[in-house]
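I'm stuck. Protein, please.
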Amino acid sequence: MRACRQSGFTLVALLIAVAIMGAGFAALGELASHAAQREREKQLLFIGQQYRQAIAAYYQRTPGMVKHYPKKLEDLLADSRYPETQRYLRRLYPDPMTASADWGLMEAPGGGIMGVYSKAEATPLKTGGFSFRDGNLAYAARYTDWKFYYDAFDSPNGLRLTR
């Protein structure tokens, strides 16, 4: 009878230990998931800035008086408007949030592409600590609201100051 009670307590203690370990592993998985998402957010901010700078350079270096935005993202890889090909990006970056090359494109008022955004519908973890240029991203409810664009008509340097 006594051995039966002891094995019952041992079984209960073992089940409690397994439950605690399971909760610990779940918490660890949650932390790892958040860390991975934060890393992808950093990549998205970097890549978005690369696209913004490339679009700005393409626009500003348009030969002649009338400036143009690129018609497609590939135009940023090889601009043939000059005798010698100009390159504004080394490669087209994939969207780190969706792991896809399919970006949302912001159409410029006169045609062409003025910016890119992720098509990911998830809620961002980062809500503060953005650079001045990306300050409007703090109010974004989803990654699709993180827009990286160059607008030559908003300010002298082409970056929107309010939104």
Notes: Residues 41-149 form one domain.
